Amino acid sequence: MGRRYMLLSGSSDRVRIAILDDHPVITLGVAAYLRSQPDFDIVHTETTSEALLHKLASQPCDVAVVDFYLPRQAWDGVDFIRRLRRRHPKLIIITFSAGAPAETEYAAFRAGANGYLPKSASMPMLVEIIRAACGQYLDKFITYKNGALRTTPPAHPDTRLTAAEIEVLRQIAQGLSVTQIAARLLRSKKTISTHKRRAMKKLNLSDDLALALYLNEKFDQKTGP
Amino acid sequence: MPHLDALLPLYPDPAIRRALLEQALAQIHADLADMRQAIHADHHADARQYVHRAKGTASFLGGSDSLPAFDQLTAALKAQHRAHIELAFAAVEAVLLQLAAKLQTQLDKLHHTAGEQA
Description:
Chain A is of the alpha/beta class. Chain A has helices at 24-35, 49-58, 77-87, 101-111, 123-134, 163-173, 178-185, 189-202, 208-219; strands spanning 15-20, 40-46, 63-66, 92-97, 115-118, 143-145, 148-150.
């Protein structure tokens, strides 16, 4: 297997890994399993996005395995991946999520992640995607389909909406107000309102009740762990 | 994630396995207590957060079969429908207690093995 990730870690052939999941049991379980790999160093195991950013600032890593949905945290989803990417341009970001792949995978791809693995995949597959992202598929977006890794870029889940509009709707579905979303995404309230209004127009949703029903259908059962 | 029987062999070191089982058990009981308290106080947003956390533990250790119970409780909390919340919470509670019992069995096995080896 290629060892291109040697370049990422300087002279070391070890892979420094950070793990973020708001479920402490998953964080522990993933870290314990990855730690059993002879060339992996688990440097950070965090349950909040804020703590991970803070830790990475003082001790960088080669790979970050990050949960996508982190409700009631300062940052999650697309917003968090973009922040990570801005602050750590060379970091390999693997999104590890139980969200609906159709939405989450594309959103992660657009935000700058290097790969997406559903939590329904096995733990050995997590090791495989980390190795693939550090090695032979360093410059590709890696996904998981039918039990195997692939490098086909994910398709847009809803061609009617832009990535920004989907992200605003996802945050509304989490119960956030326009003001809260604006603060989270560092955008003006006007911009967020515009995304919301345009999305509603494209989806033929006439009012907030219709929007609530749409969000319920689209996001309600799919935001879990 | 695989079920407990498939997951635990991934942690052959008894100390690590024990730590995982103990943390999971503690988390399940903490989440159940927090959920119960939040529901009784009608703090539905807090309750949803605890449901989300408990669902993560259940999906990691117990597989996906039980997850609809968590989604139903989340939906009931969103709708703020008291009768549905109570019913859905009872289902989630049953799932978590069943999972806790399985974890406890595995922990007892570990203790038993350790006792035999001592």
